[in-house]
Amino acid sequence: MGKFKEVLPKSLFNLLNNFKRNQFGTAQKTYAGEGEDLIIKKIFKGKKNGCYVDVGCYHPLVGSNTYLLNKEYNWSGVNIDANPETIQLFNQKRPKDININSGVGLETGKLIFYRFEEPAINTFSKEFYEKRFAEGNAFIEEKEVEVKTLAELLDSCNLNRPIDVLDIDVEGLDVDIIKSNNWEKYRPKLILIEDQAEVDNLANLPSYKYLTPLGYRLLFKTFSTAFYLDESASL
Q: Which residues contact 165 (CB under 8 A, 6 or more apart)?
């Protein structure tokens, strides 16, 4: 804007500069790691009273892709995590949501759950556990926990309304989660899946290969999150 200031009248320069600030430069509050909540807000055009399902929900306020929707737009839904301490926090901070302490897997059964001091990297994936441990992350314990399919857990909730957003972040087994869904019964309009693949490799993402034939389109990608939109959805 510096060069324009030299040739424009001061009053006109101020008018244009203020317009730019007011319309495009206003800071927006995000609670997500990479502003995913602001992207969701924009996709749904500030929709009120929406519904989310957050698998691997981590924390009700910090690093959450759904808290902005809950706080400012009256969204509600289901939060699922294998860490009991996480669900205790959700019961305190989001009591109107359905908060479920359970693992989610490809089929009902039991899996080894690896817990770290930093809950964000808890995982059912032995590969991810070994990687995080080798990086020096403080480890707490491994224990066998019960897991259920996403379809079973959603059946237990009796939502009786469409799911707008499905958010999945389970450190390595994200595709197993989407494979465990009942797609005829539960078809989210937007799906967020953690994936740190580079842009030139997106077509090879396991999530891309699974969701594309189901009618989902890869819409956006942040460093860590892929956004898939149901092509038949009305927003």
A: 40, 50, 51, 52, 53, 65, 66, 69, 77, 188, 189, 190, 191, 192
Three-state secondary structure call for residue 60: coil
Q: Cβ of 83: how many Cβ atoms within 10 Å?
A: 19
Spatial contact of 108 and 148, defined as CB atoms under 8 Å apart: yes
Among 150, 148, 227, smallest CA distance to 182 is for: 150
CATH number at residue 177: 3.40.50.150
pLDDT digits (tens, 9 = 90+) for 45-76: 999 999 999 999 999 999 999 999 999 999 99
Least confidently predicted of 3-7, 111-115, 177-181, 200-204: 3-7
H helix or E strand, kind and range, residue 54? strand 51-55
Range of the domain at 97: 30-103+157-230
**What does the pLDDT look like over 101-136, one tens digit per residue?**
999 999 999 988 888 888 777 777 788 777 888 888
Average pLDDT over residues 1-6: 44
| pTM (predicted TM-score) | 0.84
3-state secondary structure of 163: coil
